[in-house]
Design a protein that fits this description.
alpha+beta, 2 domains
Length: 378
């Protein structure tokens, strides 16, 4: 829109507001600039601006007022929300919402992490505690039913001083529905544990994705780290799982629901900042459907962990990539030395009778019932 047309249109709105509230232009002649912000004239300008901006943003009329308790004491019209009225829209980037259920589940998730009182070098090198915490993260969480984690970034942090970073304990974990996809000790394990593929299509069409539908996918933001728009870190579950249950996307709740509108999978699309929030990008599945899925399908997890000790830095011993199947750590790769792999079966090992029997048992999904807490305790 050219500037002349813009100003002509704005003048019509402004004159209409002046007329409605019986404000004359003469009242502004002797108005000192310090008096302008709190004057009736300014209020009229503010209302006119809100109406005009609203007309540019959408073709819908809203008559509700909204106040913003900032230093400017702003008052204006509510912004029309198409999600509220179930309008048909094409979403290709997250629109931030607030879900109290996600907030509760995220809090429960962060509380599962076991931490010692002293965050010293012994803690930094404690790889067994790292693995114990990973298994705890995929234990069911109770909230009007039970929910199981499919993916998340969980980071607990200590207080930061002016010139130093506090302690940090981080866990990135993502589910995978393929029995072929695996991490390797070639420096690229991060592509499955940290650097998720990005999905740029419509959310309603995500189930039709053809490139590696067995992996979780991240969504882009309109403007990352914007000071105007709420930042979100939405990650979607594997499309294979969505198709298995024939789920549809619920825009209001940022969830995947079945034909009876029951929520099967919840995605975290709350306002989030990676370096501030304890949990971001979380995905949860109703345990009832989790049990149904693993009865007939394989589900594994890829994970990355790291631990920062104040004054010492990141510990190599707990900077690790993992592949987890049925509560067992199939592979464990040091991030600092990819030549070190623990529990990766060699070709010779794969031929032995014990390995074959174990592999067979992993494939017999109808008899598997995962009890993560039993594994941890034993």
């Amino acid at each position: 829109m050219e500037s002349k047309s813009f100003l002509n249109s704005y003048e019509l709105v402004l004159n209409e507001i002046f007329k409605q509230y019986m404000i004359t232009h003469d009242e502004t002649k002797n108005l000192h600039y310090n008096e302008f912000p709190d004057s009736l004239y300014m209020k009229a300008v503010d209302v006119a601006t809100g109406i005009y901006y609203g007309s540019l943003m959408c073709n819908y009329y809203t008559d509700g007022l909204m106040t913003y308790n900032g230093l400017q004491n702003i008052i204006g019209y509510e912004v029309y929300d198409p999600l509220e009225f179930d309008e048909e829209i094409n979403l290709t980037t997250p629109i931030s919402i607030y879900s109290t259920k996600i907030d509760f589940l995220d809090d429960c998730l962060s509380n599962l992490i076991e931490l010692p009182t002293e965050k010293n070098c012994n803690w930094g090198r404690d790889g067994e505690l790292t693995k114990k915490n990973l298994l705890k993260l995929i234990t069911p969480i109770k909230d009007k039913g039970e929910w199981v984690l499919l993916g998340a970034c969980v980071t607990l942090r200590g207080d930061r001083d002016y010139d130093s970073i506090g302690w940090q304990d981080s866990y990135d974990i993502w589910c995978c529905t393929s029995d072929v996809e695996t991490i390797h000790a070639d420096g690229d394990a991060r592509k499955l544990t940290i650097e998720l593929e990005q999905y740029d299509g419509l959310l309603d069409e995500y189930r039709m994705v053809t490139y590696k539908p067995w992996l979780c996918k991240k969504m882009k933001n309109i403007i990352p780290n914007s000071s105007i728009l709420d930042n979100t870190l939405l990650v979607l579950p594997p499309a294979d799982m969505i198709n298995y249950f024939n789920l549809s996307f619920d825009k209001k709740e940022m969830a995947w629901v079945n034909s009876t509108s029951e929520t099967v999978i919840l995605c975290n699309n709350n306002k989030a900042y990676y370096y501030e929030d304890n949990v971001v990008s979380s995905i949860f599945i109703n345990k009832k459907y989790f049990d149904k899925y693993i009865k007939d399908n394989l589900l594994k997890y890829f994970a990355f962990t790291e631990r920062f000790v104040p004054g010492k830095g990141y510990s190599d011993e707990t900077s690790l990539h993992f592949e987890i199947i049925n509560g067992y750590f199939e592979k464990e790769i040091l991030n600092s030395d990819t030549s070190y792999v623990r529990r990766e079966k060699s070709n010779k090992c794969m031929k032995c009778k014990v390995a074959k029997e174990r592999e067979k048992s992993l494939r017999e999904r109808q008899n598997i019932r995962i009890s993560w807490l039993d594994i941890i305790e034993n």
